[in-house]
Amino acid sequence: MITVESLTRRYAGFTAVDNVSFTALPGRVTGFLGPNGAGKSTTMRVMVGLTVPTSGTATINGERFADLPNPGLEVGVLLDASAQHAGRTGREILTIAADTMGLPRRRVDEMLELVSLTSSEAKRRVRNYSLGMRQRLGIGTALLGDPRVLILDEPANGLDPAGIRWMRDLLTGFASQGGTVLLSSHLLHEIEVIADDLVVIGKGKIVASGSKEELLAAAGTLVRSPSPRDLAHALERAGIPSTLAGDGWVRTDADPARVGAVALTAGIALTELRSAEGTGLEDMFLSLTADTQREGVAA
Amino acid sequence: MTATIVPPDTIEAEPARRTAQPIRTTRLVKVELRKMFNTRSGFWMLISIGVLSPISAGSLLVLGLNSDVTYQNFVRASGFPMSVILPIIAILAVTGEWSQRSGLTTFTLVPSRGRMIGAKAIATLLVGLGAVSVAFAVGALGNVAGSALAGVDTAWDVSLSMALQMMLYNLVGMAFGFALGVVLRNSAAAIVGYFVASLVMPGILALLAQVRSWFEDLQPWIDWHYTQVALLNGATNTVKEWAMLGSTTMIWIVLPLVIGLLSLRRSEVK
């Protein structure tokens, strides 16, 4: 479990992290969302002791990271896949991490296999790695000590589609065995598919947090029909406000089951009926962080 | 959407706290020694010491006069490449973590920065002792071969005191590089700083001593290069001379090291 309490980090002139509190629970994947420069990475750096907080605390299973006797065995960390000595081979980077943690060398081979780096790739220097390969190596380093907590900053960056699916399965499996995963990303689709809980940060402040279901409950329903106007009228008669979204789409805050029932009673054919979740996270993200977005997007 | 199915008994259960042993310092030192030479630059620095040292000693055989064939000259010749490369090894041992950003991993695996820098210092010292021993060994081989080739008596003209001072000369050079690394935490800046302090500054101070007589007496107390040359020549003998060495060490090594360690304790690793 990761607990962050009233965490603040100020730099000369601005506050990168402003009184942030949240908890990442075991057995769940917690998605950490926010626009560029919102304070995600700073928060994660404070968690692992690379940045000293101005005030507040961050603890892993109740202990400060710096007080853990051998942190690599309890917390797997990947903050920046490119932050490796470019002149070392992938295998050497895993070897020195394994040696530092006091792990047997066979863990290095196990990890290389787990993250699908071939032995010839592992012999190459990291300078010649693609971002995706560095990301895999970083994930291998994080998992090396068989930790129960993972802190990953943008781990899907640079991975190919197969890699993204692999990572998704890996993290879901990790959480289902009781592990704690905190994962930051700005790839909303990724987070939506994988996260159980969400923490949204904007300009250093938490703007929303809770389970994904809770946060997306307000997302409503998207329904498509050859006669959208009739459907909108039928919904209105049933006391459900709705809006025409173009191309036959009607959007409403009601849940899909109710909308389907109304359409059935009114005898209106539907071509599609689904929860608006797919667009919900993006809408939610943009509206929650609207005043913190660089582009000033009005959601 | 894909829901994550979580076995109910694991949802609330806190993962069992394993009984992790603290990381031992000997293990950290071993890892640091490995890290010094498992990069491309580290590997070539090690090779260049191994290759240049015998070449340098050998050149004395080829180019030197018969009167040059003494143990002192051979040790100095084989040690010369080391006196240049060892401080760079010391610098990179520290600055690589920042310039190459590997510190992100290093300091998350070992959050205590003081321990980490300590392990690096011990590893640097071991490399220094090892390298200087090699210089003495290569010098001895050169001396035996050289005197046989030149047909002169083998001259073992290095006293214990002189040997220790030659050793200290290299260790002080490494310590200065290490301190620069800790305070600057940037490979390029620290290497440039090292060469400015060891090649450019001595000339300026010597010039200053020539034109300002009051500085002439002061120079041995503040000129790092001056006390280094005395060590290399085995000429640090009196209490006053050792005090001069202490003074330059305070100014050039202890002071930057303390400043560097203080700022490093709270600095961000990015």
Automatic annotation (TrEMBL), chain A:
Q: What is the protein name stated in its UniProt record? A: ABC-2 type transport system ATP-binding protein
The record's Pfam families line, in alphabetical order, gives: ABC_tran
Entry's family note: Belongs to the ABC transporter superfamily.
Q: Which keywords does this chain's UniProt record carry?
A: ATP-binding, Nucleotide-binding, Transport
From the UniProt record, which GO molecular function terms apply? ATP binding; ATP hydrolysis activity
Q: Which Gene3D superfamilies did the record assign?
A: P-loop containing nucleotide triphosphate hydrolases (3.40.50.300)
State the organism of origin: Kribbella kalugense
**Which SMART domains does the UniProt record give?**
AAA
Using the record's annotation, list all stretches that form the ABC transporter domain. Answer: 2-228
The keyword Lipid biosynthesis is assigned to this record? no
Q: Where are the transmembrane segments?
A: none
UniProtKB/TrEMBL annotation, chain B:
Q: Which domain of life is it from?
A: Bacteria
Question: Does this UniProt record's set of keywords contain Transmembrane?
Answer: yes
Sequence intervals crossing the membrane: 43-65, 77-96, 117-142, 162-184, 191-211, 242-264
GO-annotated cellular components: plasma membrane
Q: Which GO terms describe its molecular function?
A: ABC-type transporter activity
Q: Which UniProt keywords apply?
A: Membrane, Transmembrane, Transmembrane helix
Please verify whether the record's keywords include Amino-acid biosynthesis.
no
**Could you identify this protein by its name?**
ABC-2 family transporter
Source species of the chain: Kribbella pratensis
